Amino acid sequence: MNPWSIHIDDSFSRQLPADPILENHVRQVPHASYSFVTPKAPENPSLIAFNHALAEEMGISDGTTLPEDALSYLSGQQVYPETHSYAMRYAGHQFGNWAGQLGDGRAINLMEITHDQRRYQLQLKGAGPTPYSRRADGFAVLRSSIREYLCSEAMHALGVPTTRALSLVLSGDQVLRDMLYDGNAAYEPGAILCRVAPSFLRFGNYQVHAANNEKEILQKLVDYTIKYFYPEIQSTGKDAVLELLRTVMLRTADMIVHWQRVGFVHGVMNTDNMSILGLTIDYGPYGWLDNYDPDWTPNTTDRQNRRYRYGQQPYIGQWNLAQLANAFYPLVEEQQPFIDILNEYREYFQMQLDAMMRAKLGWQIEQKADSDLIMRLERLLPQTEVDMTIFFRELAQYEKAKTYRDEELLDPIASAFYDMSTVTDDIRSQWITWLRDYLQRTQQEEISDADRAKAMHQVNPKYVLRNYMAQMAIDDAEKGNYTLFHELEELLKRPYNEQSDYQKWYAKRPDWARSKVGCSMLSCSS
Ligand code: AMP
Ligand code: MG
Predict the structure, then answer these.
(1) How confident is the model over 64-100, as pLDDT tens digits?
(2) Do 232 and 254 form a contact (C-beta atoms < 8 A)?
(3) Which one of the listed residues 10, 19, 104, 272 is annotated catalytic?
């Protein structure tokens, strides 16, 4: 029985040790990498969205028709024939503190499909409790599931490594949530997302075995990771472990450089939310920069320390890698090579960040003085509210050969300023100086203005999922209207294109969204 005619290859559950207990109750699970668990069947599920393009890529549909019994499998009503669903055991550091065993509290892995030499793990999020649900219910609400669906697909289209979204199902059941943790709990519609990635392994999966002295399982997991996801690593023994760490280090750095490029703030960079494949994973209280502000975080739980603010993400990447290094340590038992890899992160990150910023600024050649000009811009941007997306997009308008008078020098980027009246004479003169230096530097580029603009438009998106846009789609969806959800889904498939029909989404955050819940303030409650 194989209704979708797919090739199933459940490598993880086959190769790693299972929890022998099959009963689904909350517990500490020793000496295992996962626990078998069946999704809780929703009463009356309905399909909100199905990602036909992804389904076709995975070989489960022709790109237009829904696979047989899709709703039933994607809602958790039925487990696909001859597969065994399970929740992974992992641990993690949350907000800098060791939190012990966490695990898939509301994620259930369905199966691994291989197609065209690629591996796709299907995972339901919000399909009911697991042994790792701790004090929570295992469900997810519609608002957070919409946010994950839209954002993970938007990130994919932006070229940012990410988990994907295959489907979104309204469960038909109500879920109780205290959204702002202020004692005002209310029922909200429940939803189930099916997400897809080659693997959902996180730093925390390695941490849990290291912390519990399960060295043998740890080694098995490392070997498994290399065999299936980093086959380019040819060395063996300790060298292989170190090479894995170094490769994960490079991938993590690349991912965060992308986040900085598009203005994405993850919001909860705990080690259990760091993918071993360098994918953006676990879309919770994430947000997008409207005005460029390195101190901004959308996560209300993190408002005090701002540990996970935009400007801090590169450092947290390194901190998290240090925790992964600690987890790998028992397999190597030598400090220096780990220290070297973590130090290399700094250098590599800076190099990639500079290259990314040069691309955003439209420079193809590399000059020594570039870093200084970039640093000055990063200091200037937050002095008044300047929209990050619009600023970089409009910057492409400057013409190399044109002589600008001081009064007109800011004109091409004027639409990025939230309130020109807050631009003091001093700030204006700093902008004029910077723009003059920018133009002078840009004149040294050989490519034409048109070619430069084209290249800039491929790294500076025109459309991102601004926080208020997602919230508008959620407000409508909670009333049963998914039109805006689908409109945003379409829009964000081509974030670098002009898309004249959707011009209205190329706009600064409206004033009403400045401090609205869901738009600039998000909690972990989901
Ligand atoms: P997160 O902050 O979403 O990365 O979640 C941290 C941990 O809490 C993970 O182990 C999740 O599986 C778990 N968790 C979050 N929400 C729920 C929920 N509604 N039910 C069960 N576990 C949850
Ligand atoms: Mg998580």
Answers:
(1) 999 999 999 999 999 999 999 999 999 999 999 999 9
(2) no
(3) 272
